[in-house]
Design brief:
Elements lengths: L2 H8 L6 H12 L6 H8 L8 H13 L3 E5 L5 E5 L5 E6 L5 E5 L5 H11 L9 E4 L2 H9 L1
Parallel strand pairs: 3-5
Antiparallel strand pairs: 1-2, 3-4
Helix pairs in contact: 2-3, 3-4
The structure holds zinc ion (2 copies).
């Protein structure tokens, strides 16, 4: 059994064909996929896959923190697989390739300042960086 299958089994979720198809699409993707793209790719594995099922499956995967939702440069919501632990995503503006990088005490100074200024207690953060990957930077200098 693969890691994601074990995680599903551990919380009494069945490994169904649609779930396999959605996970398969995400495993092969280099950049975050929109639900419609997951549907298109997933249908190559499971022809009866529907968009509602894709959304439901993504909700389940989100709850189990198998995937994360990211904002794409085109304004769509995309989904990528997560590694265990505290990570952030860096997205290339040009080709959409996504990489994870580990988060640490990264935002502690900022969060403490904001708490001091607002009186809020902050218990979660979302941080996503945009930039240009090395391949796209190279493409630019060739042109
Ligand atoms: Zn790129
Ligand atoms: Zn962080």
């Amino acid at each position: 059994m693969t890691a994601w299958e074990q995680q599903l089994t551990a919380c009494d979720c069945r490994i169904t064909m649609p779930r396999r198809a959605v996970m398969g699409a995400l495993l092969e993707a280099e950049s975050p996929l929109a639900p419609q793209e997951i549907l298109d790719r997933g249908r190559q594995v499971h022809t009866r896959l529907g968009l509602v099922t894709v959304y439901r499956t993504l909700e389940l995967f989100l709850r189990l923190t198998l995937v994360r939702r990211v904002h794409r440069e085109d304004g769509c919501q995309g989904y990528v697989l997560t590694s265990p632990g505290h990570h952030h995503v860096l997205l290339c503006r040009d080709c959409g390739r996504a990489v994870e990088f580990p988060g640490g005490d990264d935002l502690q100074v900022l969060i403490q300042r904001v708490e001091g200024e607002t009186g809020y207690r902050v218990d979660e953060h979302l941080l996503q960086l945009f930039g240009r990957c090395t391949a796209c930077q190279q493409g630019e200098s060739d042109a």
